[in-house]
Amino acid sequence: MNEFFREVDDELRRDKATQIWKRWGGLVVAAAIILVVAVGGWRYWEYIETSRTQQAAAQFYEAGRMLERGDRAGGREALEQLASGGASGYAVLARFRLAANIGDADPLAGAREYDALANDSAVPGALRDLARLRGALLRMDLEPDAAATSLQSLATPTGAFRHTAREALGLIALRRGDYDRAGEWFDQIAADPETPQALRGRLEVYSSLVAAGPLEASR
User: Fold this and answer.
1) H or E segment to which residue 56 belongs
2) Are 73 and 88 in contact (CB under 8 A)?
3) Residue 105: how many other CB atoms lie within 10 Å
4) Which of 103, 121, 145 is the C-terminal boundary of a domain?
5) Is 10 within the bounds of a domain?
């Protein structure tokens, strides 16, 4: 008798499973197909992105080799192509390298290239600050007021590039003969526990210049 009831239960389960499959089987198959296609598409996208990144890396390396060999035109052309159509990370690197190369020959033109990077919302924030810093450093001798404006935004207590920004601001003030302002920037450098040791070594020279400046000017 137990065997009979077990067979009945099994038959009921099969009937119920058949009914469920008839009702939902199409959706299950469709979901399985969508999953397979999605996974396959993701894998293909990963392959394409990896290939693009490898190609961009090779192009960036070759552009650097051209510049090192003195092929300025070829190197710049390769960097420009990469900057306009390469993988996003290498496109930004190409723009930085291009700005540096242009700045070697024409500081203000190079600074404008860095400005474009600093004002591009698609560039990560830390790299935008780096571009702002490099542009300001190129302007220090030719446009010190504009350089100081950019540097002040980077000289905040938590700024990643505050050490270099403060040093540059102090030097700009020294060149202007504003020894008090220069001293203020150098004092901030001295008070910052994270100031690099190499900068602390230069700070001794800067402090001596600040102290001697007014005395020399009064002679």
Assistant:
1) helix 2-68
2) no
3) 9
4) 145
5) no
53-93, pLDDT tens digit by residue?
Answer: 667 677 777 777 777 787 778 777 888 888 887 556 788 88
Domain check: are 131 and 165 in the same one? no
User: What pLDDT, in 10s, does the model give residues 137-162?
Assistant: 999 999 999 999 999 999 999 999 99
- In the block, residue with structure tokens 């994270």: 194
- Tell me: do 101 and 120 sit in the same domain: yes
* Domain range enclosing 98: 79-145
Provide long-range contacts, Cβ within 8 A and 24+ apart, for 33-37: none
Q: Please count the structural domains in the chain.
A: 2
Supply 107's token pair. Answer: 């500081």
d(CA 198, CA 205) in angstroms, rounded, equals: 12
Judge residue 194's burial from the number of C-beta atoms within 10 Å of its C-beta, 0-12 exposed, 13-18 middle, 19 or more buried: exposed
Q: Which residue bears the tokens 């490898």?
A: 54
Does 34 map to a domain? no
Would you call 72 exposed, middle or buried from its count of C-beta atoms within 10 A (0-12, 13-18, 19+)?
Answer: middle
